[in-house]
UniProtKB/TrEMBL annotation:
SUPFAM superfamilies: (Trans)glycosidases (SSF51445). Keywords: Glycosidase, Hydrolase. Residues 39-64 are annotated as: Disordered. Belongs to the glycosyl hydrolase 1 family. GO terms for biological process: carbohydrate metabolic process. One of its GO terms (molecular function) is hydrolase activity, hydrolyzing O-glycosyl compounds. It comes from the Eukaryota. Residues 54-64 have a biased composition (Basic and acidic residues). Residues 39-53 have a biased composition (Polar residues). The keyword Translocase does not apply. Pfam families: Glyco_hydro_1. This is Beta-glucosidase.
Amino acid sequence: MRELVKERLPKFTDDEVSLVKGSYDFLGINYYTANYAKNNPNVDPNKPSQVTDSHADVSTDRDGVSIGPKVRKDSWLAVYPEGLKDLMIHIKHHYKDPIIYITENGYLDYDSSDVEKLLKDEGRVKYYQQHLIKLHESMEAGVKVKGYFAWTLLDDFEWSRGYTMRFGITYIDFKSKTLERIPKLSSKWFNHFLST
């Protein structure tokens, strides 16, 4: 990292290193999907960025085959719950068995005029079921998971994609003045899951 990032990487004094080392209370992990990584030695050294610093190309596809199912072919999110379990166990074994919170985990639908389809979000329900099963398996393997947060309660503004992607378990009618909220199937599933 020091060789690739060079002067953009902050430097710490010995006192700062000892102050920071091992000082976290827990790790917060955002997990949506997994990617394949391939070495890319051809990064332009005159255009450094956090995207190219790793000198790697990442993709959910390898040889034209996705790591898991996608909502649609051009989606960045491929459903791969096994990756969550793999990550949890890797962190346990390589980072001194910390307390972990899953701070984001979620599934996207692309906005459409078919509100009924968006409300009957069976793909999201399946996504959460599969990921929570793998998270439970991680816990059975000794990973110290203390909390889980689904992304997100409400459809929201998603970075550069704006309102074109919907991650919420509650549908928001962005065209109405009242921003009507309607619980999706996934919201009802979570309610049942948490009450049993």
